[in-house]
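chain below, 615 aa
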Amino acid sequence: MVGTVMFGGALLPTSLSLLWYCLYLLFLLSSNRLLAGTGAITDSGAYSHKNSGECSEKINNVSPLKCAFAIFDADFFNDTKIAEITKGAIELNIPISRANRKLVASTNGGLHDPSYLVFNPDWGSEQVQSKSKRFRYPSLSGMQRPESEEDIAYMTVLELGELIKTKQITSEELTRIFLHRLKRYNHVLEAVITYTDELAYKQAKEADEMLTRGIYLGPLHGIPYGLKDIIAVPQYKTTWGSTTFKDQVLDIEASVYKKLKSAGAVLVAKLVTGSLAYDDIWFGGRTRNPWNIEEYSTGSSAGPAASTSAGIVPFAIGSETSGSITYPAARCGVTALRPTFGAVGRTGVMSISESLDKLGPFCRSAVDCAIILDAILGKDPDDLSSRDISLDDPFSVDITNLTVGYLDDAEMEVVHVLESKGVKMVPFKLNYTVDDVQGILNFTMDVDMLAHFDEWQRSGEDDSYEAQEQWPVELRRARMIPAVDYIQAQRARGKLVREIRESFSVDAFIGNATDWEKVCIGNLVGMPVLVVPTGFTKISDPPPHGTQRRTTISTGIYAPPNHDHIALALAMAYQSVTTHHRQRPPIDDLGRNDLMLDSISAQPDHRCSETIPCL
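prediction:
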């Protein structure tokens, strides 16, 4: 016979009820109902002795408390110690926690008061020199303007920059072309949150006027681009992709936006981020993959990846904490760089984890990634984790001096091409003993995220989140992670960093960019990876009479921290003799059996309001 216990006025089987009973008691503990009694802890966080007798009586009854301690894997204490710990938590811990929350956690997003526990991904004791010189870009003399706007839209940043420099096209004209394409295709892709028309034309006009006066700022002069909508731009909404924050305007100029503005780039749109930078679901819909519009783009940098792939921006800035550059770049078939941790400043960017968050470019080529990185690289005085990193010029790297490993899951075409270019290619394997890298990443990411969105959870705003099985569930679980176990996770992370450093016996290695284990390792260690398109396959279950839609194939080129230039140089060598990165997705010619065709071809060039949720 199954035993029963009383819970909330009902009898439940003991096999099912013990855990729920413990969770119920923990809820009472966390809300101070079980331990302190009404008014034992005041709103200010101070402990009141008003009901100390009642409190002491409840503490002395330690049996229910053992359940709560078990949830924290701390049920090894005897009754006396449990009563002592509980009394100390009420009188000391809770008031301190409340005071700290009031001081630094009343605003969501982690935009202010960053943690002083700063992660440094440097390997070894050598001093990294400050960045002192720019990269030397290749010359494109003789570049001619294509006749069609479609061909212009798929040119690289370097090619567009040459057209502007030689005055074959103006920045205003280029801005018009890309705003037109953004508004033409967004109803299908759901990749744009906010169009920045007024700002874009103002910046484009300034770029053209400067060129008229003989001032040329470099290859980004007058080039349109998009920003993931966790990056703040004054006077425009920064929605973080979330229903809760969809009307939020931050009076902050993000560091990465400042740097691109100073390089002459023209912001045309705030692009989709998954809600609170989680996957591709946002308050207005779900972003689609231009190569296969029945498929979603995956990853929270969904807008930057889809927009770059579809030729509706020349490049875009996205972010990664655990896969949000690598996954959408691979899915949408674009070249993208997750740089060394700390290489790009993050002031004005919604924070998930100060020791994991990275900003990086989505581009048409590795050359463009190098150009964008050169513009945004360097110390951000308000981002404690950012550093001046002296990268060698990727355009000057002699790849024949490199030894590059390849993993079992590497795309062998890349291996063979690099070998033909004189690179020494060798089989390779990362060796490490840490067996739960995902657990370390989850503890780190979720606890940090909860610290930045503590008020969001406490106020119940997480109930309106777009995908309840995502952040709401993860962050509720994160509240149950003790501080000591968070620190232990960081110690395990340190062990992983040391083991990867010791195992990294090559200059770089080639491997799957979306293998989850490598995504976790790369982000925990802070190593850069360049996602490179390497081909296409047929989609699964295609229509009976065929389709233009394709599944993209990509690989990752990984380098040690502070050696992004090596990954860039290898990717540039590969792309110099291949054309996978030059292919265009079939968003205008999907095939007669693809239902989305009519909705695209029939859609007028509508003029939208500043913020477009989803059409």
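Residues 1-19, 29-53, 597-615 have pLDDT under 50 and may be disordered. The two ends are 58 Å apart (CA to CA).
thats it, cya
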